[in-house]
Amino acid sequence: MSQRQSNGIHGPAVELNLDGLVGPTHHYAGLGVGNLASQRHRHKPSNPRAAALEGIAKMRLLHGLGIAQGVLPPQERPLVPALRFLGFAGDDAAVLAAAAREAPELLAACSSPSSMWTANAATVSPAADTADGRLHLTPANLTSQFHRSLEASATMSVLRHIFDDTTKFVVHDPLPSATGFADEGAANHMRLAPSHGVAGIEIFVYGRESEARSAGGQFPARQTLAASQAVARRHGLRSTRTLFLRQSDAAIEAGVFHNDVIATSNEHMLLVHEEAFADGSAALAAIRDSYVAAFGNEPVIIEVPATTVPLSLAVETYLFNSQIVTLPDGGMALVCPQECREHDATSQWLDRVVSGDNPINVVYPVAVRQSMNNGGGPACLRLRVVLSPDDLARVHAGVFVTPPLLDDLETWVKCHYRDRLTLSDLADPSLLAESREAVAECMALLRLPHAACRL
Ligand code: SUG
């Protein structure tokens, strides 16, 4: 049973960010398809401790800005039951050894802590948008990649514990695990509204229609239109306030494997690269027209031309994977990857945005480099959930971040995490033991049932 407590937030609807904690097996196996950073860092040593601490530092920043901040636990990895399911037998150490010997790529996949990228955990529709007035979440099936498909059942279980008040929240089952329903969650979903609490326009971005595996290029398109449409139907969204837009092939080919690598929104603001969508000007016109029809005024759309930030630089810096957040006393902050300040074009663009005529008045660069090396920037690490203060008070309080919880999590990381990991370490039975102990302790810190993270 969740424990309720006042979270100190009153007034209009707010966004709760649920950040994924990086797990103790964070490594670089080059598993991300169409993900250039993951390919580039393949087989390099990783630093799980630094990765987890970077994520916690980001949560501390957001909490300090007055944004409701929560945390999702890592899932148990290596996932020995998955390896057994694939035919590796014996005790746990024998399973790991056989997998390392016969199919190291499967051991890497079953060891991936990829649930850290919680923008792929689920698609979320706030209560204001849905037919039954409840918040709807559909956990992503992540069927496009084996290592990510392993996340879905534990994610569903954890979300059901966190959002357990069924009078206010619905956590659906993931969509069927079929290529036609490939779903990667909130990373391919945006929302526009004059403010968080108003019924908004939900924008679903897909890469392929359904069965076709690729958009025709070297990289597969991960999200299908059929999946996005099914999520919209389940959530009871109004058709007049729902848009389905296709990613441009050029973006996918440049390494934009999710829409959140090339576009992001907050309330009435959309930040988008000119090459994000197929038929970009028609897509932006559709967004603008829907917004004007719904709210009677124009959204703020900042369209970044390729001449200012080429697609390749957008992917390298993850500029569009920034979090744009509404600050409690008005205005918006842009929380961007540190890498954006390390390139003249993006850094100058940031300066122009802050001094320009738009709601963003401050920029906070954050270092999440260990995650960035696997293609996950600040926005990939968080699941945004828009809620009224009353509904926020019904969310399982154990996952809300406070300075003491952040301190405890830092101590927990320093106690359990290694500072160097290579692929050969994944077969080490003591890594499995350390990881199991760490995850069990984390579940206790967040007051979640242990079984939820080991499905
Ligand atoms: O699915 N990387 C993840 C990164 C996900 C980023 N999320 C968002 N854009 N919202 C992916 O490609 C790499 C794992 C490895 O190579 O070990 C990986 O899965």
Low-confidence stretches: 1-10
Tally of helical runs: 16
Largest sheet: 3 strands, mixed
Radius of gyration: 21 Å
Query: What strand line-up does the widest sheet have?
Result: 2-1-15
Produce a short descriptive summary:
The protein has helices spanning 36-40, 48-64, 80-85, 92-102, 104-111, 146-149, 152-162, 225-235, 249-253, 280-295, 311-317, 344-355, 369-372, 389-392, 403-416, 429-445; strands at residues 14-20, 68-72, 122-125, 135-139, 169-171, 189-192, 201-206, 242-246, 263-266, 269-273, 300-304, 323-326, 332-337, 360-366, 382-387. By secondary structure, it is of the alpha/beta class.
Key features of this structure:
455 residues; binds N~2~-(3-carboxypropanoyl)-L-arginine; three-stranded mixed β-sheet; alpha/beta
Structure description:
This protein is α/β, with parallel strands linked by helices. It has helices spanning 36-40, 48-64, 80-85, 92-102, 104-111, 146-149, 152-162, 225-235, 249-253, 280-295, 311-317, 344-355, 369-372, 389-392, 403-416, 429-445, and strands at 14-20, 68-72, 122-125, 135-139, 169-171, 189-192, 201-206, 242-246, 263-266, 269-273, 300-304, 323-326, 332-337, 360-366, 382-387. It is globular, with a radius of gyration of 21 Å. The two termini are 20 Å apart. Mean pLDDT is 95; it is low at 1-10. The structure holds N~2~-(3-carboxypropanoyl)-L-arginine (SUG). Residues 27-32, 35, 38, 112, 114, 117, 119-120, 148, 187, 257-258, 260-261, 374-376, 380 line the site of N~2~-(3-carboxypropanoyl)-L-arginine. N~2~-(3-carboxypropanoyl)-L-arginine binds at residues 27-32, 35, 38, 112, 114, 117, 119-120, 148, 187, 257-258, 260-261, 374-376, 380.
